[in-house]
Write a structure and sequence with these properties.
By secondary structure, the chain is mostly helical. The protein has eight helices and no strands.
Length: 195
């Protein structure tokens, strides 16, 4: 087996991809059957992005985090590529629905929330470990999607549920960039041996 296949298997990427595609297919089919409007509501789009990112979160670490810190392999660029490919997977599958009977869009909302949530998940993986990296994005996004706030600070705190033309929702770009840099440089947090 090549290094890439071993890497993907050790990170449980095939299982995560199956969860991402299967979950989106189930939501898409349900919306197609039961909804009268072709455009999916923004709140459902945000929650779908969140579920896809949460499914990819366990792939941010392998079975042994100490191996991710070996000097014989240049990990920073590999981690950055891993994160960018995860973002690409979410975007490709969600944006492909724009040409179907149930459209998960607009594209700007999908790109902003996917990048921001994946960056937040990567930051959490760096601090708390990959196994717990989806906790904060899940809690924060549920509150933000159901209770979006007005005003500069309120809109910044609930950027996930803000309209696509909201300038304050650029917090997503900060989270995306910060998560990419932190995860690429430091990798996932180390687990205790008992975990």
């Amino acid at each position: 087996m090549t290094w890439t296949l071993l890497y993907l298997r050790s990170r449980r990427v095939p299982l995560a991809l199956a969860a991402v595609v299967g979950g989106l297919a189930a939501l898409w089919t349900t919306y197609l059957i039961f909804a009268e409007d072709r455009d999916v509501t923004p709140m459902m789009v945000v929650m779908t992005v969140l579920l896809m990112v949460a499914a990819l979160a366990p792939t941010l670490a392998g079975p042994d985090e100490s191996l991710d810190r070996t000097a014989s392999v240049r990990w920073p660029w590999r981690r950055a590529v891993h994160l960018l490919v995860g973002l690409l997977v979410v975007l490709v599958f969600l944006l492909a629905t724009l040409h179907t009977g149930a459209r998960f869009g607009p594209a700007a909302l999908v790109v902003r929330d996917a990048a921001g949530l994946l960056g937040l998940t990567a930051l959490c993986a760096t601090v708390f470990g990959a196994a717990r990296s989806w906790f904060l994005p899940l809690g924060w996004t549920i509150v933000a999607a159901f209770y979006p706030q007005d005003g500069t600070w309120g809109a910044a705190a609930t950027w996930q549920g803000q309209p696509t033309d909201s300038r304050v929702a650029a917090v997503a770009a900060v989270l995306a960039g910060g998560g990419l840099v932190a995860y690429a440089m430091f990798g996932p947090a180390r687990r205790a041996p008992s975990e």
